[in-house]
Write a structure and sequence with these properties.
- By secondary structure, the chain is an alpha/beta fold.
- The protein folds into 2 domains: about 240 residues, Aspartate Aminotransferase, domain 2; about 130 residues, Aspartate Aminotransferase, domain 1.
- The strands form 2 sheets. A 7-stranded mixed sheet has the order 1-7-6-5-4-2-3, with helices on both faces.
- The longest helix has 21 residues.
- The termini are far apart.
- The structure holds pyridoxal-5'-phosphate (PLP).
- Keywords: Lyase, Pyridoxal phosphate.
- This is Cystathionine gamma-lyase/homocysteine desulfhydrase.
- One of its GO terms (molecular function) is homocysteine desulfhydrase activity.
Length: about 375
């Protein structure tokens, strides 16, 4: 099966009983049992729900795993994965992980005696040096936000194997359409499905996939114990979103390449970050481990004032947090998603006041470029 076909035909499709082509929304909490202690495969919807199960089956297949899990948000998925650990364990994480993951590690997990170190995982040596005797998990995000740094999945797997670490990959930016970390030996792949997988700015959700049966059992145990499950309506929205994931990602990537080239040639733009550009440090590595470059572009407009001018002038780029939708979004990381990082540290990382992040949508690229041109000139 080729990639776009896989998005349409994976998992459980339709309804056996009626022939309905779309999976029904099973808006139900409990299930009639034929006898006490016997059930039809479903007993209570926290434990399992047919609509959620259909989604979980698709997710397992499109990530080349065996088990999938749907959670109430990306953070609910990440928190549940962290519950695989126990007090005293240590985690090594990518230094520019999603802000919510940073907050979880530094303000919540620390209270449970789960310690952490943040390192630049695009440099395997730093990762190796950060591993301690009590390190149990290597948690990476690739590419990262907002500078699109790329981490080598194969090298991470070697380090994880050497030290017996659970390798977890946040694959939100790349999507299962372009990148499948389980193929590179990752133990767990997860997504904020709020972004590209949902794709229409209308649902908050998190998804997880694994290959190993025991790990699948362990995560199901935690999902059922902690209870941060996705409801049937939202599960159905994601089932619908996944069918067009391939089409959307192809359209988004085509637009992104043109926009990245336009920005690179523009005299007002100081620097462009997009893995699809040959001068991006992660370009070759992305070609080795991903089938595409995605739709996130960051660029340095030179100053905060210039960035504001661009925001005032664009019409089709909506100023908003989040990413991965059909509509193009624009944001200023220094004042939005990364405002909690001290300015010195931000500048050190390259997150300048003039840095603008684009999440490219599926509009006509001529309109998007005209929009940016208007803002820049
Ligand atoms: C948004 C996001 C999350 C968190 O997901 P929510 O659905 O907002 O809880 C985690 N990781 C990445 C890379 C994200 O972009």
């Amino acid at each position: 099966m080729k990639r776009k076909t896989k998005m349409v035909h994976s998992g459980i499709t339709g309804d056996k009983q009626t022939g309905a082509v779309s999976v029904p929304i099973y808006q139900v909490s409990t299930y009639k049992q034929p006898e006490a202690g016997k059930h039809t495969g479903y007993e209570y919807s926290r434990t399992g729900n047919p609509t959620r199960h259909a989604l979980e089956t698709v997710v397992a297949e499109i990530e080349n795993g065996t088990r999938g899990f749907a959670f109430a948000s990306g953070m609910a998925a990440i928190t549940s994965i962290m519950m695989l650990l126990k007090a005293g364990d240590h985690i090594v994480l990518t230094d520019d992980v999603y802000g919510g993951t940073y907050r979880l590690a530094t303000k919540v997990l620390n209270r449970m005696d789960l310690s952490h170190d943040f390192v630049d995982t695009s440099n395997p040596e730093e990762v190796e040096n950060a591993v301690k005797p009590n390190t149990k998990m290597l948690y990476i995000e690739t590419p990262t936000n907002p500078l699109l740094k790329v981490t080598d999945l194969k090298k991470m797997k070697e380090i994880a194997d050497k030290h017996d670490l659970l390798l977890v990959v946040d694959n939100t930016f790349a999507t299962p359409y372009w990148q499948n970390p389980l193929d590179f030996g990752a133990d767990i792949v997860l997504h904020s499905a709020t972004k590209y997988i949902g794709g229409h700015s209308d649902v908050v959700s998190g998804l997880v996939a694994v290959k190993d049966d025991q790990l699948g059992e362990d995560i199901h145990f935690i999902q059922n114990s902690v209870g941060a499950v996705l409801g049937p309506q939202d599960s159905w929205l994601l089932l619908r979103g996944i069918k067009t994931l391939g089409l959307r990602m192809e359209a988004i990537e085509k637009n992104s390449l043109e926009i990245a080239e336009f920005l690179s040639d523009h005299p007002q733009v100081k620097k462009v970050y997009y893995p699809g550009l040959e001068n991006h440090p992660g370009h070759e590595l992305t070609k080795q481990q991903s089938a595409g470059f995605g739709g996130m572009i960051s660029f340095d407009a030179g100053s905060g004032e210039k960035a504001d001018e661009i925001l005032r002038n664009v019409q089709y780029f909506t100023l908003a947090e989040s990413l991965g939708a059909v509509e193009s979004l624009i944001s200023i990381p220094a004042r939005m998603t990364h405002a909690s990082i001290p300015k010195d540290r931000r500048e050190e990382l390259g997150i300048t006041d003039g840095l603008i992040r684009l999440s490219v949508g599926i509009e006509d690229v001529e309109d998007l470029i005209a929009d940016l041109e208007k803002g820049l000139s």
